[in-house]
Protein 1
Amino acid sequence: MKTYQEINEKIKSGNAVVFTAEEIIDYVEEVGLEKAADDVDVVTTATFGAMCSSGCFLNFGHSKPKMRITEAWLDDVLAYSGIAAVDLFLGATQLRHRDPANMNYPGEFSFGGGHVIEKLIAGEKVQLFGLSYGTDEYPRKEIRTWVTIDDLNQAIMVNPRNCYQNYNVAINCSDKPIYTYLGQLKPNMGNMTYSSAGQLSPLLNDPWYRTIGVGTKVWLAGAQGHVYSEGTQHSPTCERGENNVPSEGAGTLALTGNMKKMNPEFVRGVSLKGYGVSLALGIGVPIPILNKEILKATTVRDSEIQACVIDYSSDYPERRGNVVAKVSYADLKSGEVEIGGKKIPTSGLSSYSKALKIAGLLKDEIKRGDFLLSEPHTMLPTEQGMTPLEIREK
Amino acid sequence: MTTKRIHFKFPAKAASQPVVTHLVRDYNLDVNIFHARVNQKEEGFMMLDLTGSDQEIANGLEYLKSLRIEIHDADIGLQWDETRCTSCGNCLNHCPTNALYIPDRSTMKVDYRSDKCVECLNCIDNCPFGACSSLI
């Protein structure tokens, strides 16, 4: 048994024993759970993938004369201005003004909110265009200027839903190609796509949220951010395996962090043909090894994590809840899965390779004493479902 | 016999000439075209394999140069930007020749081998990160 304080003392002294969620599997197998629970202080988990429910609050400072911006575009992408005078919120999936979307189906969606966020973090110039009705103290009615992230007073990423605990595997059972947020799906079950870092993924290594809670410090694209709330659609009540690992979406995290400290390698605009734009993010979460149960959960392997294969041509859009099959991440990562005697090629939308890199970077930061752990001040709910939206007459 | 894959760009003047017919009939070359396009200014791009003896290929290329055609080695056709690629792997099932592939499934890192690429350009449509682009 260890406490957060004891682990942090070891981190500060440069003596913390840290493994990635991939390395810990073999280590525990080699030395046994008891000994490993004594030895190991932290296991680092990570994920990299598209996370649509992301965005940022930006403060631009005041122009002369001053302006209370009521409509705004960043590189022609609409930003929400229904907050204070020069604060804007830019969402990851916002399309560029006059993007033809799916009018030429399937649309290209080459640029949007996620790409503007990527440009800002890469230090590139972004055009601000704003309009206003003008007031006595904020007389300016129009502004066009170019800014970099260094010109902004604050650039704070605020993501209502990141790090889905697990995720659907998408397949297309119809006879036409379809275009989804999980990529292009070929007809007649021609391919399957998935999006999870599997055995490296944060919430799959802490399935009952014993250490990851509100207040947990996280590695958000290189910045030290934190969990500010349960994520939207957090619904831990679902089917789970013997190892407590859910085979459905289940838990989610709401994360925030300072964009000025982020590394552009891990914040990337996403264009999905026929679907839209999004933002891919790299996230690392350290798990303190307080006891052997927490350690045991971090030894989960891809072969022990199941995901549901869902037909995105009809069951998913119609909210039917049917499951075509269940498959493991070990199978999905092999590149081919057999369903009903048919071999189906698989590919990811989440990058295991980047997740591996992030788990390693976070491990190095902790070992160097640059990343201390924080104890959550509120635990995430462990019993909670998801309510659907009913369409009522009035 | 040798096969040489080339990518070339020809000016508007050359676009009106039956270049491929000449390569076949007058220079005794087998031609396999992967991609061809003429733009609005009537300039053209073409990506093809030439098969013949070394001398025949050299003669054919001389003929193309006499038409002021820019000739490039083929692998500049598709550009894979390793720094833009996140190794998500979404391209893999859309690449018919496995030019984009994962050499080691323990790291899941995506790599590209230009010699396998047939310039179908499916990867461009299916890369969420804009890692693939083409001059064609």
Protein 2
Amino acid sequence: MKYKYTDVDKSGDPLRESWWVEYMESELSEELEKDLDLLLANSEIDQDILDNLENLKGFIKQTDTVELPENNDFYDQLHDKIMDGVENTHMEAPIVAKASRLRRTVASLTPYAVAAMAFFVIAIQAPLKTSSPHNDYVWSKVIEANQEIRTASRHEMAEMVVAQNQTQDFYLDMLSEQLGDLPQAQMQEIIHEALSQ
Amino acid sequence: MAQKADIQLVDEAKGGCKKAYSELVRRHQQGVLRLAMRFAKDIDLAEDITQEAFIKAYQKLELFEGRSAFKSWLYQIAVNTAKNKLRSMKHDAFSNIENVQIAVESEAEKNMLGKQLGELLKNEIEQLPQKQRTALKLRVFEDLSFKEIATIMDCPYDTAKANYRHGLMRLRHRMAESGKDYRGINQEYHLAPSWKGYAEVENQ
């Protein structure tokens, strides 16, 4: 059947058209593709839609007018210019990579070990929270250290709290929230003071 | 001797081997240049974009973890560099293109008409929203998979596909709106009417 174009209705049936785009791009499941094959064999309208889309894609391809230089000298020079730039460039330190490396290290620990660490951190804070001049001193140090971390390494903390979808992440985040990036010496000092009371 | 894979060269470059990066440049500079040309439409500007993209890629190389192909990652940087460059130059590559008026349809002028239609189509492609245009160009001109397009556009797979689909469908409608019979231009090429339009024809 030959049809003539009358009018374009933008509110037509984009869903039906979408199916044929998916079909054309081989993005459908085998089962669905078979269903559409059947439809295609029996529907002239759908055949036209598919032909039309394929022709349009072919026509678009024909409009590709990008022409690149073909001589090797051009590419040699481009390569040299790029490498000159590279010579004067330093690779950036991998901040995110560091965070993910730390995350991988933590992930390699068994969840039980991480859970035990988390339990330990919570457990040592219970006596800290009881009121005594000594505990108040220790507790104020924890708060002070936490504040320091929040202001100094907010960016790093944000990098750390990237994914929430792993069990280990939960414990890691809990640890980060509790102690952040406390310097080890400071952390040991606090723990020592808490245990020696 | 077997050619080293990109990922091997990346690892060597991360370890400080400039020669490895040089090989990556040789391997991909033409592809990046072609991609840059699609945005810049000017060889000098495209060359700048290519150069900048490779240098940025080198700077960020430590962040490349090999979750996607190096080529896709590099193309992503090239596309972003091109966009930023054009934005900073306040260069709208598409605003200067005048709408092509089609006035001739005679048999003798079919070639001319075909050329004009090609121009019209190119113009319509450039009028597409940026994401649709990018997805369409990467798919049709560069023959990239939707997975690669998703990496380059830094979006989910389905979003990349939806952008392409909407772009293509929009083009089809825009071309049909021009109301011309395309069959003489590109053999069987003609645009189907909308469903509503179709129904009208069938009911006649």
